[in-house]
Amino acid sequence: MSRRTVLAAGVGAVAGVALAGAGIAAGAAPSMAAPPWWAKLTPRQQAGQRVIFSYPGPTPPQSLLDGITAGEVGGVIFFGENILNLAQIAGVVAQLRAAQAASPIKEPLLLMTDQEGGIVRRLKGMEPILSEKQIGLQPDPDAAATAAGAGAAASLRSAGMNLNLAPVLDVFRVPGNFDDQFGRSYSSDPVIAGRLGAEMVTAQQGAGVAATAKHFPGLGAATQAQNTDLGPVTLTQSLDELRSVDESAFVPAIAAGVQLVMTSWATYPALDAVYPAGLSTTIVQNELRGRLGFTGVTITDALEAGAIDAFGDTGQRSLLAAQAGMDVLLCSSRDMQQGTDALDAMTAALQDKTLNPGHYKQALARVQSLRAGLF
User: Fold this and answer.
1) Where are the domains of the chain?
2) What global pTM score does this model have?
């Protein structure tokens, strides 16, 4: 995710007739395909599968546990303030998993954190130690990127988590700019950044932890002062540069099967002069899914980001993101009410069909596919 305190979710459950071979024998009763798991859920439970919650401090509130047991929570993101040590957070995760086991949802929760490497590590003192910048400068950066992916997976698995919000695939332009100042970019060369990112993804997902390529279509052109956490950011590179440099770094990770892509909250006039990337149908549907062929799960950056203040409250932002094609909504302000507001808005929009029902089911199917493969 871009800067959430770096420093300080088929059309319908319509069952098809199963035919044996070229046809079925006369008089034989057709069999119906099993409906997806979410088809039996209430609208509120369906909405919940697309919302990631967060909470303050080291102890998860009872409201979060109750929401999980009710089947109204898709996942949880963990920050430094939630983690005292490995034993403590592993105990918390076990508690959340127990609540999920008592719920109507049998797929695992999405249990995530930012374990990028360098200074961006919520599991302090654990792998990957090297930042992306440091990896790019190693004598054998490919081996270092692979080791980082394996290390990140081991760290998350030891805490019971199954999804890492990494790697960052931004291609920094100027030394010391927004990404580079924190060591959050492999290289200013999109070929190198893309290759190392894909190697990290392959190693991490090979060890059973989902990876997230971020922040599409790229924040590498952001200056040191351009921070979407704090306010609007407009990146004015040409369409050719945006595609040949920024987006191109995501191509190897997509080819490697990265399971999630996180969009940025910057605005890119070359593609969409009105909406930031995570609210832009043009960027999510046309560029990421259409042009680059990504078929996995899309996840927003922090819904509380200052860059999207002009687009309404949490509920309004959630609907705009879902309408743009975002599958999972990241409520990361460490405030349970934020997640509840997103859940309320998504439930109402599902019931009154403000959100396209077919598109909604497609998003749920993508989330189901992701979660079915996680521990």
Assistant:
1) 49-372
2) 0.92
Domain 49-372: CATH class, spelled out: alpha beta
| Nearest-angstrom CA–CA distance, 352 and 185 | 43
SS3 92: helix
- Region 305-309: mean pLDDT is 99
Half-sphere exposure of 152 (CA within 13 A, CB side): 38
Q: Which DSSP helix (H) or strand (E) runs through 192? A: helix 190-206
Q: Which residues contact 69 (CB under 8 A, 6 or more apart)?
A: 99, 100, 102, 103
Does 23 have pLDDT greater than 70? no
Residue 363's H or E segment, with its range, is: helix 357-372
- Chain centroid to Cα 247, Å, comes to 17
